[in-house]
Amino acid sequence: LKSNPSNNEEKEAQTQLTKSDELQRLHSQALSAYQREDYVAAISLLDEILAVCVWDAELRELRAECYIKEGEPSKAISDLKAAAKLKNDNTEAFYKISRIYYQLGDHELSLSEVRECLKLDQDHKQCFSLYKQVKKLNKQIESAEEFIREGRYEDAINKYDSVMQTEPEVPVYATRAKERICHCLSKNQQATEAIKVCTEVLQLEPTNVNALKDRAEAYLLEDLYEE
Q1: At which residues are the TPR repeats (predicted)?
Q2: CA 87, CA 99: separation in Å to the nearest integer?
Q3: C-alpha distances in Å from residue 207, one per residue of 84, 104, 214, 217, 219
Q4: pLDDT-derived band of residue 10, with 50, 70 and 90 as boundaries?
């Protein structure tokens, strides 16, 4: 404006300055909402700011935190992935993405993201600890699935028992393991046990199609046609 004053540019400069002041006000309000744990309000305010400040990694990370608190992990992942690209060596973003995928039960994507963190910093304590856990779990699940493909159902059951011991804190892994054990028992013609385990799965997930099919197979073995 100082270097080349003209009516058009002055008007544009004043508009930008007004917008800048408005965004700073919204930013203060967003931080205040976050601190008082009103995450819905914080997200709404951050949406307005990020519509203009598209490339702000810190704001995306803050909105991701709000999404996590509001139980919207997929939206958090989207913001964190953007933040990982926008900020160099953003190990924290990769760590958080990996943690979210892990909590959702997607161990393969979790492993992929935590490896990205370790590429940036091989001594990152949190990432290395998570990497060891996810790698172990991933290996057990892959091994169990290989046993199923080979028809070695007893070995697969034992391996899925190990999965539940490796990760007792995240319920989705126990549910998936029981679903696969139910499948193995049904295929192995251990009908009584299959019905018991499949029913446990269906109490947690009434619409689990795999467990319904495997329990149906087990009922057939027992001549329980109505069931």
Answers
A1: 91-124
A2: 19
A3: 36, 18, 13, 16, 18
A4: confident
